[in-house]
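Methods — Computational structure assignment.
A single polypeptide chain was analysed. Its primary sequence is given first, followed by the predicted tertiary structure written as structure tokens.
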Amino acid sequence: MAFIRTNNVKISGISAAIPRNTESNEDLTSMSKESIDLLIKTTGIQARRIAPSSLTAADMCQAAAEKLLTELNWDRSEIEVLIFVTQTPDQPIPGMSMQLQDRLGLPKSCMAMDLNQGCAGYVYGLSTIMSLMSGSQLKKGLLLVGDTITHLLDKSDHSTVPIFSDAGTATALEFDPSAEKAVFNLQTDGNGADAILQLRGEYMKMNGHQVFHFGLKEVVPNIRETLKGTGIELDEIDHFVFHQANKLLNESIRKKLNIPPEKVPYTLNIFGNTSCATIPITIVHSLKNENSNPSKTCLLSGFGVGLSWGSGVVNLSECVLPNLIEL
């Protein structure tokens, strides 16, 4: 496993944007009432946010970044790195990070790069940008994470349509010698790549049973190893923010770790599974009113497509969380 420790970088703010359009799983006409009730009970997903074809992941990330930069009153000329995490770029070439650098009015001295990552994308992206900033003492950075997975789905596929939603997020980071260290534990198993797969010119497909069993097997030991590497006890973590995969899997992980339910926030019921954006959306929506917590040590855990998974322990005590944006 890849254990990464970073120093001197703090998370200054997180914002999120979602499509205004909402679809309810109660209204699925291709399924029986009994099947719908079972689906909602096991996944925990009642509603999903669906982006029109004209709205992209980059658009939503840009909106989230604009709002966050305004609230932080940042000088954009000081931003030295931008990383865009997505599986659904506007086009294959060039990378959207470069276009977002220009659209956000960032300086030409800002490095920009794209990461193709899904369910574990926020943890992977956060570890990457914090490592770059820590090692090179870059002043300020932006991590943009989002997907429009619904654009890849066959509308008749009951294994994907009732699950996935769209969203874009922005996370602002600053070099700060007084910041608490962050620790990440990242893993990969490409042998399971066919569990969630979209071939060129085809719809995305998911083997839900394979993904579920992978999550049960790998996530708990990853989290335990992460905590062991930090020296922090499980009961010292203020919040465990999991990728919003489905309620049955996430609750199985929570119970295996014996985490009190009040420490595990959920947004599945109202936003569905927004792929790489689920963790920051859950932070924005569920932890906004808890900024007064002087410690707020959070364990973040993402797991899924790839197969890839990872956890990170970070501090969010000074994190600005603007209201959720609807587009």
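Note: The CA atoms of residues 110 and 213 lie 41 Å apart.
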